[in-house]
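User: Predict the structure for this protein chain, please.
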Amino acid sequence: MTVDRTDLDRARSLLAWTGPVGIVLVLVGWMVLAGFLPPPSPTLSPSDTVAVWADHTNLKRLGMILAVWGGVLYVPFTVAVAEALWRDGGSGPRLLAVAQGAMGTFGTVFFSLNFFILAMAPYRIEQAPDRLPPMYDLGMAMTFAPVAPFTFQYALIAAAILQNRAERPALPRWVAYVNLWVAILLIPATLIPFVKSGPLAWNGVLSFWIPVIVFVGWFGVMFWSLRRSPAATGAVLQHS
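Assistant: Here is the predicted structure, written as structure tokens:
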């Protein structure tokens, strides 16, 4: 059966663009509106934490809500990656494509619910300021520590690419190694619950700066790869 390339290419392009659009919304909400670059230190006292949220409270709330909208776009972007891996892969890569899609969809829970928790942290800041610090701690920890779904997702993407034996695979082999490195560099953030200062704290170099840089970079690499894939650049595609 011949596929209507016009509709298919439009759908592929739409899904591919959800990645950069989503991460831009998250970054604008987090860095620009909320001003969390870097995040406030976990060593702040409860009163200082309340003071952070008492300053431009609604702007911070708006930033977190915008980040929720951006975070959920990780799902369609994951579907775009899955479709590319499925497109010219054999049974092995296709199974891995489905598995990474499931991991990415699950990971989106942590890439959206965390922002909503932070948006709700100052909900009763005037009446019960003591309730804010625990919710804030939970929201911050959920933003950076639950990297397991993403680490497994990127490892599965790498495995699917490396198993692909097509002459012109949709995603080049070097993208597999990028995914492996990103997966590894996210792992230190899992130790956030154990520390309040230093490189492993949620504002530290190993749990914030490096993971954020490589995570944002991952979007750039995957978007570029999806847009440069043989199908996206006009290769003939038929499904039978």
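The longest helix spans residues 5-33.
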